[in-house]
Design a protein that fits this description.
Elements (H helix, E strand, L loop, with lengths): L9 E6 L4 H13 L3 E3 L12 H17 L2 E5 L7 H12 L3 E4 L10
Parallel strand pairs: 1-2, 1-3, 3-4
Amino acid sequence: MMVMNKKNKIVVLVGSLKFWNKIQEMHEKLELQGYAVIGITPHVMERKYTKEEEDLLDELQMSKIKLADAIFVVNVNQYIGFSTSREIEFAKSLNKEIMYLEDVNGKRIN
């Protein structure tokens, strides 16, 4: 049996797409620290998603959280939107570890 440490811990990124560059930066930094990172769908198509597509992406994000050991919240300037709040609560309900870019006082922790 493998011992769980950051070198084999699976982490899902969560956060607002308005911070896409920071999300990508944290993806790279966390992997270079030894975490196996599951990223966020980039939303690069130049069209609005249908309701069905949005629901599918939400469902997939929750599936990613189920598979992971932890989530990493990219909360730039402590911003946490509705979807991210929902993902945090879901992770809490599954007793997942929750890591944040910034603590409640705005201090960067990674």
